[in-house]
């Protein structure tokens, strides 16, 4: 009995040692993905579309904005995108980067192709696989040009952002489920759709506005999606460790889907009303500025998403 136990322990020790070596060997993986052929322009129409994407549709500022200026951002001010906000989640502490054109601390030294590759292919400037925070891999060529052109047009701000801090769980996740970069599910369009159409709504919901990243249940230990697409999520509050948010089901289910409670006009009014529940992580202050035809497009697309029965309950719950 003792011998068997000792033997088992030895096998276990070897397995643990081998796994530790495997994890350690995969902390600095690099991926050789060719940068998309995207070049920024100084064209004012492209920059205006870029501002609309960065400041409203894709709400880059919600994560990359100066974290000391949350109130100004809430009031609709275009705050500097200096990075520095701290996401403290089970795998560690993570910091969105400085995306102003400063060459030492921001994106000034990145090529247009490197920025495009980060957004489209999930590969960082140094070739690492990026964490799954930016679910907008399907951005069109035209919109990538717009975003990068707008980023280049901002004033540079010198601001050093701390390096990510992976804890024990984080190093395992980094070596396993998050080891590979995630690119687009289908070839992104060259030009983006527009108008109050289902096609444009699908593009905005699936490729631009991060809707499904929050409205689908995710495992916050591993970053992986575990629930049915758009059928409702569950997410921590970045400011209140006791609070859990439940982004509602956005599929067309008439009983548990939130859209059943809105006519199209009410949905437009809801988006233009901004944040109603204080502290809600949904980027309502950015979405308040969405063009009416885009909100209509989003509504029409969501109404076409096959129903999934999933009740999410109240918007948030506070743990004792
Ligand atoms: C939900 C939060 C979130 C949103 C929204 C977001 N980002 Fe990020 N971004 C991050 C985080 C976190 C990182 C760091 C990722 C990493 O290092 O693995 C990052 C990294 C980056 C990088 C650096 C890539 C590199 O090479 O290191 C760029 C460029 C970037 N984001 C641009 C944008 C732009 C442009 C938008 C809007 C279109 C945007 N981000 C929206 C969280 C976000
Ligand atoms: C950062 C996470 C996040 C993103 C991104 C996000 N949501 Fe939400 N959403 C939430 C949370 C949390 C709630 C519940 C709290 C609230 O109502 O503000 C919510 C609530 C809603 C509601 C119910 C509002 C009400 O008053 O009944 C709708 C509709 C909605 N989201 C649609 C969308 C759409 C469409 C998008 C993309 C354009 C989107 N959300 C993007 C987190 C998010």
Short account of what is shown:
It comes from Eiseniibacteriota bacterium. With 320 residues, the chain is mainly alpha-helical.
- Give the ligands present: heme C
Global outline: globular
Beta strand count? 6
Helical content, roughly? Answer: 25-40%
Q: What does the main sheet amount to?
A: 3 strands, antiparallel
> Strand share of the residues?
5-15%
How far is the first residue's CA from the last residue's CA?
46 Å
How would you sum up this structure, described in words?
It holds the Pfam family Cytochrom_C. Keywords: Heme, Iron, Metal-binding. With 320 residues, this protein is mostly helical. The protein has two domains: 148 residues, no CATH class; 128 residues, Cytochrome Bc1 Complex, Chain D, domain 2. Helix content is 38%, strand content 5%. It is built from twelve helices and six strands. A three-stranded antiparallel β-sheet has the order 1-2-3. The chain has a three-stranded antiparallel β-sheet with strand order 4-5-6, with no helix packed on it. A hairpin with a 6-residue loop joins strand 4 and strand 5. Helix 1 crosses helix 7. The longest helix is centred in the N-terminal third of the chain and has 24 residues. The chain is globular. 34% of the residues are buried. The model has no long low-confidence stretch (mean pLDDT 96). Bound molecules: heme C (HEC) (2 copies).
């Amino acid at each position: 009995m003792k011998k068997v136990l000792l033997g088992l322990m030895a096998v276990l020790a070897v397995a643990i040692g081998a796994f530790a070596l495997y994890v350690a060997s995969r902390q600095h993986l690099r991926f050789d993905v060719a940068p998309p052929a995207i070049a920024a322009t100084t064209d004012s129409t492209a920059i205006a579309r870029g501002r609309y994407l960065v400041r409203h549709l894709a709400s880059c500022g919600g994560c990359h904005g100066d974290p000391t200026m949350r109130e100004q951002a809430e009031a609709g001010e275009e705050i500097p995108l200096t990075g520095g906000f701290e996401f403290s989640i089970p795998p560690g502490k993570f910091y969105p980067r400085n995306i102003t054109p400063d060459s030492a601390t921001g994106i000034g030294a990145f090529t247009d192709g490197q920025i495009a590759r980060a957004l489209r292919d999930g590969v960082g400037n140094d070739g690492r696989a990026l964490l799954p925070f930016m679910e907008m891999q399907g951005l069109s060529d035209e919109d990538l040009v717009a975003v990068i052109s707008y980023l280049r047009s901002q004033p540079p701000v010198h601001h050093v952002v701390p390096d990510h801090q992976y804890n024990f769980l984080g190093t395992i996740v980094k070596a396993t489920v998050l080891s590979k970069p995630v690119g687009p599910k289908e070839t992104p369009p060259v030009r983006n759709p527009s108008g109050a159409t289902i096609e444009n709504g699908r593009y905005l919901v699936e490729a631009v506005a991060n809707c499904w990243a929050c409205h689908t249940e995710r495992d916050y230990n591993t970053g992986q999606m575990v629930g049915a697409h758009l059928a409702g999520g569950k997410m921590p509050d970045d400011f209140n460790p006791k609070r859990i948010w439940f982004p509602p089901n956005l599929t067309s289910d008439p009983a548990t889907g939130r859209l059943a409670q809105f006519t199209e006009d009410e949905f437009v009014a809801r988006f233009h009303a901004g944040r109603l529940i204080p502290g809600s992580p949904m980027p309502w202050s950015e979405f308040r500025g969405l063009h009416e035809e885009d909100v209509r497009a989003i509504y029409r697309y969501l109404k076409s998403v096959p129903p999934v029965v999933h009740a999410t309950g109240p918007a948030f719950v506070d743990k004792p």
